[in-house]
Structures are given as C-alpha cells and as structure tokens.
Amino acid sequence: MTSALKILATPIGNIRDITLRALDELKAADIILAEDTRHTKALIKALNITLKDSVRLISCDSRREEHRSAQVLRFLEQNLSVVLVSDAGTPALSDPGSLLVQAVVRGAGALEVIPGASALTAALMGAGVDTTRFAFLGFLPQKKQARKRLIESASCAELALIFYESPLRVQALLNELHELLGPRRVVVARELTKIYETFHRGTLGEILSPALVSKGECVVIVEAQGSAKLINPSCEQNQEIISIINKSQESSKDLVLTLVKKYKLKKKSAYDLVLSQRRHNWDRED
After folding, report:
1. What pLDDT digit, counting tens, does each position of 231-248 carry?
2. Dihedral pair phi/psi, residue 211, rounded to 5°
C-alpha cells in the first residue's frame, strides 16, 4: 500500500489561519518537504506543534523540487506520510510544488490536497470589483515584450487580470497596465491577513485611494474590459485608440466624435475614455 503526497497550505500572514486538518497532517508527517526549512521550522515552533521524533525536514525549493521526485515516490511506496509546504500560502500557486506534483502524477503516485490560505483567494474576496471570470498571471516575466504579450492575450478574453508584484515595482506595473489597457478599475491588495492589510482602489492612470505604500507583497486586480464599460474593441483597436488620444490635437468633443465614427463606440464610452486618458497625460506632465 502506498501513501499520498499531502499538498498543504500554510498561513500567508496571520498564523491563526492554519486549518485544523493542516495541524493534524503536520503532526503525523514522517517527511516534510519545505520551500525553506528555516521558515518552516519557525512556523512549526510558532504553532507549538510537536513533530514525530523521526520526522525529516527536507528542502524542496524551486531549484530542487524536480530532483526530489524520485525520492518522494520512494517515500510514498514505503507508505510514509509526506507533506509538501511552501513558505506561505498554497504550494504550486506561484510557489514551488507544480513540478513535484506533476512528477508524482507521472509516477502514478497518489495526491491529497489540504487547502487553506492563499493570497490570490484573499485578494479576490476583498477586491470589490467584478472578478466573476479571471486570469491569474502570477509574477510577470522580466522582459517587457513577454509581459506585454501575456497581458494583451489575457485581456483579449475579457477577463479580470490578477498579478503578484513586489511593492517596489507595483507602481511601474500599474503604469504599464494603463498604457496597455487604458483606464480600468484596479485594486492593489497589500499585506493580506496582516495588521496593516490594505485595499488600495481606483482607476488605472489615476492615484489610488489610499495612496500606495512601498511595503509588503501586493496582489493587483484589474477589472475586465467589459465590466469597466469604457470600450469593447479588439486588443489591437484598444492600443490604436489610446495612441490616437495621446497624439490628437483635437478638442475632447471633436475627438469623441472621431472615435465614435471610426470605431462604432458609444458616445459616453468614448467620452469617458478620452477624459480619463487625457487627465492621466496631464498628471504625468505636471
């Protein structure tokens, strides 16, 4: 008889978010695969968990997880209780774990999920914008063109877009999203489940309320294009329209008529878009 790899979520900030089932699995574990063993030891100590004397705590970060697969399959064949955790939140969701889980599936091993805290679900719960259908893009690629292709392809599906970002780069991401998508409602969820948990709300291209703070990991949620009800052309047209607004010397009234005629937009949608984009450009000049 073989056991199952237990994929276990841990708290993302507030330690009391650990589940009773997660506590039971950690106490019963023979093997704990950890993204960072030091972090997991600190968590176990804070939770006041008494582990088995024979338990092994093994490093399984993004560089090692694929190489651990054969070892993990042997542990499972020996009917050992094997638990996989990341530093915070849910393994395999922008955290190590996906490659190991795939390897266990290929090796016909069993899996069991112990769900719990996740920055993604916590942000969605408090976003306050339409996230009925969304695309989770995690941390974006470093190269600008790769980021652009990913954002635009997801945007074409008229989905809300969810990103993870460092507080030091979040403002740059918001600026880039505005250039690509125009003025849509956006929420930045920061320090989720912690003392200073904050939801910063507003529109791309404008200052959020409350103002952003460069501290704590951030989840960025951009409402779907259809929900914003500003424009609904193709992604290529979206870029073209924003470019026309930026370059046009026409009055706002005349420019609205131009967009309505050329792109078959509703007059109010075109008017809202022109005003928002021009306001953003004026703010940048100031």
Report:
1. 444 456 666 887 888 888
2. -60, 145
Distances (CA, A) of 281 to 175, 205, 242, 245, 278: 11, 8, 11, 10, 5
Whether residues 143 and 85 share a domain: the answer is no
Q: How many domains does the chain have?
A: 3
How confident is the model over 3-31, as pLDDT tens digits? Answer: 999 999 999 999 999 999 999 999 999 99
Task: Write out pLDDT tens, residues 173-210.
Answer: 999 999 888 889 999 999 999 999 999 999 999 999 99
Per-residue confidence (pLDDT) for residue 236, from 0 to 100: 63
Cα–Cα nearest to 182, from 87, 274, 263, 97: 274
Question: 128: which 2 tokens?
Answer: 């306050």
**Residue 283 pLDDT exceeds 60:** no
Q: Are 59 and 37 in contact (CB under 8 A)?
A: yes
Residues 6 or more apart whose Cβ sits within 8 Å of residue 197: 13, 189, 190, 191
Strands 56-59 and 31-34: parallel
Residue (of 257, 206, 232, 230) closest to 248 by Cα position: 257
Q: How many CA atoms lie within 13 A of 52 on its CB side?
A: 16
Residue numbers of the domain that contains 281: 235-285
The last residue of one of the domains, among 203, 228, 253, is: 228
